[in-house]
Design a protein that fits this description.
Number of strands: 5
CATH architecture: 3-Layer(aba) Sandwich
Organism: Micromonospora purpureochromogenes
Domain Beta-ketoacyl synthase-like N-terminal: 52-148
Pfam family, one: Ketoacyl-synt_2
Largest sheet: 5 strands, mixed
Radius of gyration: 16 Å
Shape: globular
Number of domains: 1
Structural class: alpha/beta
CATH topology: Peroxisomal Thiolase, Chain A, domain 1
CATH class: Alpha Beta
CATH superfamily: Thiolase/Chalcone synthase
Protein name: Beta-ketoacyl synthase-like N-terminal domain-containing protein
Distance between the termini: 9 Å
């Protein structure tokens, strides 16, 4: 089992909404993923980029992805409107996972999961698989929670590496 190298949540005491994320519009999903990932990676590495020589994967776990953006696109199309081009970019969760990887210089695989069971267990299983298959030395696991209306309410990021998880 892998060890927890760093961990972060959003929100933590004193947090407001995460800062806007250039290239992502309308929804708090991507800014929340990026904010919690940045916080976790900063706790491990300090400033960007991550140190050279360590391959770090990104595993994003979300039951439904960016529902606010999907609902906006659905409503716009139903009303005969034009969907903005940024929605095509951000329509898949791996766009924000790739954004985090690029911003931090992470050169491992990027995997997005829609869990069928326990989100943490599914995410840990995927991260462990990447670590033990040698695809990565570390894995950033980001779980994002949503309210019943699809609005993201919080996120957890855990950086995992070799050793024994406690």
């Amino acid at each position: 089992m892998s060890a927890v190298l760093a961990e972060a949540r959003w929100p933590e005491p004193g947090d407001g909404p995460p800062a806007a994320l250039p290239g992502f519009v309308h929804s708090p999903f991507a800014p929340l993923v990026a904010a919690v990932a940045d916080r976790c990676l900063t706790r491990r590495y300090g400033a960007r980029p991550a140190p050279a020589g360590t391959t770090c994967a990104v595993v994003l776990v979300s039951a439904a992805g960016d529902r606010p953006s999907a609902a906006h696109v659905r409503a716009t199309v139903a009303a005969g409107g034009r969907v903005g081009p940024l929605f095509f970019f951000q329509s898949v969760p791996n766009s924000v996972a790739g954004h985090v990887a690029a911003r931090w210089g992470l050169d491992g695989p990027v995997v997005c999961l829609s869990p069928t069971g326990d989100p943490r267990a599914d995410g840990l299983a995927q991260a462990d698989l990447l670590l033990y298959d040698g695809d990565a030395d570390e894995a950033l696991l980001v779980e994002i929670e949503e309210a019943p209306d699809g609005t993201p309410t919080g996120a957890v990021a855990v950086l995992l590496g070799g050793g024994t998880r406690q």
